[in-house]
Amino acid sequence: MPLSDDERKRLEELEKQLSAQDPSLARDLEDGKPADRIPRRRVFASLAVLVGLALVIVGVVTKMPVIGVIGFVLQCAGAYWLPVGPGLYNQNTGFRARFRNRNGKEPR
Question: How far apart are the C-alpha atoms of 61 and 56, rounded to whole Å?
Answer without folding.
Answer: 9
